[in-house]
Design goal:
The chain is about 50% helix and about 15% strand. It has 14 helices and 9 strands. The strands form 2 sheets. Strands 3-2-1-4-5-6 form a 6-stranded parallel beta sheet, sandwiched between helices. A 3-stranded mixed beta sheet has the order 7-8-9. It starts with a strand and ends in a 17-residue tail after the last helix. The chain is of the alpha/beta class. It is globular and about 65 Å long. The C terminus is likely disordered. Bound molecules: nicotinamide-adenine-dinucleotide. Nicotinamide-adenine-dinucleotide binds next to α4, β7 and α7.
């Protein structure tokens, strides 16, 4: 059993930390907001700062929203770096910039510690069910030590390469997810406007070549009009920004990533930055003169 620091206990972090506690590990918790009571009730220890949590732990995990938040948690006042001693391992499971990640890793390595970037895919459902996909960058020796913890939180755990490669893989993942959500939204809008029941269309397509987790989960949300997050549009804008910035640096075009980002921006302009990313369908509905996907369908009776 290990002593583990867990920093950032929002939608994802609280579920992931729960699995580690349930497996018998001792967890030291810190968040700039209130800590989830269920974790404290199950024996999680509250820490006043990331530094304090780091002093008490061998492995320190961060799960915060964006690159500046990881920077603050690691290197800000009372941050992880101030509490590190050689041999500890820092594991960032947030989805952030691959470039900044390489710099963070260098600074942590200079303190005698290994760094792993280990962003996840699978959403809140995957976090709850411990079925996350975990994409890891960093040295193999650190990966082998942390792998048993990854296995408690996820099912598909891959060491992709060196530091930054985990985050690069996650950006690639987010391109596929965004463009697939957009495709599912267009397809359901088309079917509904044509007079077909979108719930039945979705059920029919689930058996075929167009089936996907996104048609299943996000398609269901679009039909049932459930846009509470989940994964907020503002977080997906952050990820596509990383893709588009990277594309500029690399001198390549990502045309459909760019157009999907414009649709997310339109959602934000209409008050939707905190909607679940399946809310992208609402932008297409606006463009269709206000026709809603669920309008002609039977939203209450989805066939699984
Ligand atoms: P969230 O906003 O619900 O949770 C983040 C938590 O971090 C919050 O509780 C916040 O108070 C805390 N925090 C922020 N800055 C901090 C700091 N400096 N020190 C300590 N705590 C700090 O976000 P989330 O949905 O849990 O996402 C976390 C990360 O996981 C993001 O990078 C996101 O892109 C990624 N992700 C999210 C999902 C999802 O479905 N929600 C899926 C895969 C990956």
């Amino acid at each position: 059993m290990s002593d583990i620091g867990f920093i950032g206990l929002g939608i994802m972090g609280r579920q992931m930390a729960q699995h580690l506690i349930d497996a018998g590990h001792k967890l030291f918790l810190h968040d700039i907001g209130p800590l989830p009571q269920p974790l404290l009730d199950r024996g999680g220890q509250a820490g006043k700062s990331s530094e304090e949590v780091t002093r008490q732990s061998e492995i320190i995990i961060t799960m915060v929203p964006d690159t500046p938040n990881v920077d603050a948690a690691l290197f800000g006042a009372g941050g992880v770096a101030a509490g590190l001693s050689p041999g500890k391992i820092v594991v960032d499971m947030s989805s952030i910039s691959p470039l900044a990640t390489k710099e963070f890793a260098r600074k942590i390595n200079a303190l005698g510690c290994d760094y792993l970037d280990a962003p996840v895919s699978g959403g809140e459902v995957g976090a709850k069910q411990a079925s996350l996909t975990i994409m890891v960058g960093g040295p193999e020796r650190a990966f082998e030590k942390v792998k048993p913890l990854f296995d408690l939180m996820g099912k598909n755990v891959t060491l992709v390469g060196g530091n930054g490669d985990g985050q690069t893989t996650k950006v690639a993942n987010q391109i596929i997810v965004a463009l697939t959500i957009e495709a599912v939204a267009e397809a359901l809008l088309f079917a509904s406007k044509a007079g077909a029941d979108p719930a039945k269309v979705r059920a029919a397509l689930m058996g075929g070549f167009a089936s996907s987790r996104i048609l299943e989960l996000h398609g269901e949300r679009m039909i049932q009009r459930r846009f509470d997050p989940g994964f907020r549009i503002e977080l997906h804008q952050k990820d596509l920004n990383l893709a588009l910035q990277g594309a500029r640096t690399l001198g390549i075009a990502l045309p459909n990533t760019a157009s999907t980002q414009q649709l997310f921006n339109t959602a934000e302009a209409n008050g939707g930055k905190a909607w679940d990313h399946s809310g992208l369908v609402k932008v297409l509905e606006l463009m269709a003169g206000g026709h809603e996907v669920a309008q002609h369908g039977n939203a209450g009776q989805l066939l699984d």
